[in-house]
Amino acid sequence: MAAGRHFLQIPGPTNVPDRVLRAIDRPTIDHRGPEFGRLGREVLAGIRQIFKTAGPVVIYPASGTGAWEAALVNTLSPGDRVLMCETGHFATLWREMAGRLGLEVDLIPGDWRHGADPDAIETRLAEARGHVIKAVCVVHNETSTGVTSRIAEIRRAIDRTGHPALLLVDTISSLGSIDYQHDAWGVDVTVAGSQKGLMLPPGLSFNAISDKALAASANARLPRSYWDWQAMLAHNPGGYFPYTPATNLLYGLREAIAMLLEEGLDQVFARHDRHAEATRRAVRAWGLEILCADPREYSSSLTAVLMPPGHDADELRRLILEAFDMSLGSGLTKLRGKVFRIGHLGDFNDLTLAGTLAGVEMGLRLAGVPHQANGVAAALDHLASQAQGAAADAPRRATA
Ligand SMILES: Cc1ncc(COP(=O)(O)O)c(C=O)c1O
Predict the structure, then answer these.
(1) Which of 99, 132, 234, 339 qualifies as a FRET site for 88, CA 20 to 30 Å off?
(2) 207 and 229 in contact (C-beta within 8 Å)?
(3) How far apart are CA 99 and CA 96, in angstroms?
(4) In the predicted model, what is the mean pLDDT of the chain?
């Protein structure tokens, strides 16, 4: 049993803050009673602010994979063509699911170092005569690579073709960490999960639904039962659910929404941007390579770091876990052993980042990975300079 807190620095599930843990630690109540109705109405209204939508958001007692399935089965019919982009492991899993559900997948291949390419999407849609593509599916933040896709640009690319395809976006590792705007960016279904930027344990997932997606669901013929939006939307106005909800996770969600709004979403995003930038400075100072190849697509939730040839990322992670009680993300499928991933999202501050990077730097030394031992210093330099700016602004803010 190690003393002190375990450092859970995988890119989700993230560390659950004490406030959320305390909120969850309460008696479970009657999910058909009046107190539950108040809780349900509060979280169903509050969560819209996090998605930046005026429309409905449904909440499933399920992991993110369930919300992927819900997005597809509520909007599409057997044999429909969907356009997907191979940005990494999670985009690949979503594509495989679409195939298993009986959809025809048009794939834009990728190298797992770039986000979905708006130009390639525009070209594919323009080439597809007769509007046969029913949906474009994109992972906003590819958790396996630390690469984001530029959703607003993708929306504009779709609009330029005049193609009516729905836009379905996975924000499982970006919601509550990286700016995301369901309504303003014209997204039709946004998929999210509880265990990352929302700072909750795993077990809740979400679909934010546009009017266009709702209209599509009236004619969609993929079989669905548990995931059916209609039953959810019929019960949700009273704050209730068609089946037993994850009551205690909803207590936690109420608290997490309050925390995000108290800090202010813009400040939350700026904090994630700052920690991501400090992390990249550390990686460069170590002399290692960031997997994400395009600075416009850097993720503020996590950084995937390439190992030098001949060195195994899993061995490095094993040593770091044993010596410093810190978990880092592994390389998934084709990146196995080649990268490790540093999660810097959720309930996370400057000193959590300092500890995390210190653990990595010491681990590189233990594992005999060639590096310059000044990554932590580079990160601290960035954090301190930013804090100095914030401190200088503080009196002005106080008197403003
Ligand atoms: C981007 C992304 N999509 C989908 C999933 C799958 O979600 P879950 O494992 O909660 O089912 C994950 C999980 O990490 C993810 O990061």
Answers:
(1) 132
(2) yes
(3) 5
(4) 96
